[in-house]
Amino acid sequence: MTKFFCCVAAVMFAGAAMAQDKPDTTPAGMPDMTKMGPMSRPVTKQDKKGVDAAFKAMDAAWKNGDADAAAETIDFPIIMLSDNSKGEVKHFTATREQWVAMMKPFMANMPKDMKMSHRHTAHFLSDTLAVAITEDRMTRGKIKGKWKGMAVLTKVNDAWKFKQMAEAGWGDMPPAPGAKAEAAGRAPTTTATRP
């Protein structure tokens, strides 16, 4: 029996020694994915009500023609992303002042017979970062249309705010005053969009 325990102990110690001698298979410079990256920030709460509240506040501001109230729903600087009639992708970042100056004319001159509605589906990347895909509809007289958009939202002081807005087709608009436009290898232009 003593020989049996000695053999078991020898095998255990040999196994432990082999495990210590096992080479590290992590590529050089690769972080521990449990401590950095998406695995370190798992979603613990899908705060759909919080994201819904951000969209409701933005919608109410648009209906009231209040660009300043709309700006309260944004985590500035905001990234505006679109493409133009040639399919060239354009984006720029805007400060609160630049965004309000760009949106005020839209809100102030909204046709009375225009009706807009949307639905959104939120996808959570972490407890403080979400992406929402929107399905938008607009009618004005005989003009009817629908499209999809995208918004990135960040949680700031327990409230969800828009960090990026994207819709197609706004890239031919003239630049917003002072906004820094970026388009890889193309002439700078800007976009305006509504989540």
Global outline = globular
Mean pLDDT score: 83
- State the CATH architecture of the domain at 48-182: Roll
Q: How many β-strand runs?
A: 7
CATH level-3 fold name of the domain at 48-182: Nuclear Transport Factor 2, Chain: A
Helical residues, percent: 25-40%
Which strand-content bin applies to the residues?
Answer: 25-35%
Structural class: alpha+beta
Strand order of the largest sheet: 3-4-5-6-1-2-7
Poorly predicted ranges: 4-19, 184-195
For the record, what CATH class of the domain at 48-182 applies?
Answer: Alpha Beta
The secondary-structure element order is HHHEEHEEEEE
* Major sheet summary line: 7 strands, mixed
What is the topology?
Blueprint: H1 2-21, H2 48-64, H3 67-71, E1 74-83, E2 89-94, H4 96-108, E3 114-124, E4 129-140, E5 143-156, E6 159-166, E7 180-182
Parallel strand pairs: 1-6
Antiparallel strand pairs: 1-2, 2-7, 3-4, 4-5, 5-6
At a glance:
It contains 4 helices and 7 strands, in the order αααββαβββββ. With 195 residues, the chain is α+β, with helices and mostly antiparallel strands. The chain has a domain of 135 residues: Nuclear Transport Factor 2, Chain: A.
Polypeptide structure, described:
With 195 residues, the protein is α+β, with helices and mostly antiparallel strands. The chain has a domain at 48-182: Roll (Nuclear Transport Factor 2, Chain: A), CATH 3.10.450. Helices cover 28% and strands 33% of the residues. The chain is built from 4 helices and 7 strands; from the N terminus they run αααββαβββββ. The chain has helices spanning 2-21, 48-64, 67-71, 96-108; strands spanning 74-83, 89-94, 114-124, 129-140, 143-156, 159-166, 180-182. The chain has a 7-stranded mixed sheet. Strand 3 (114-124) and strand 4 form a beta hairpin. The longest helix has 20 residues, at 2-21. Mean pLDDT is 83; it is low at 4-19 and 184-195.
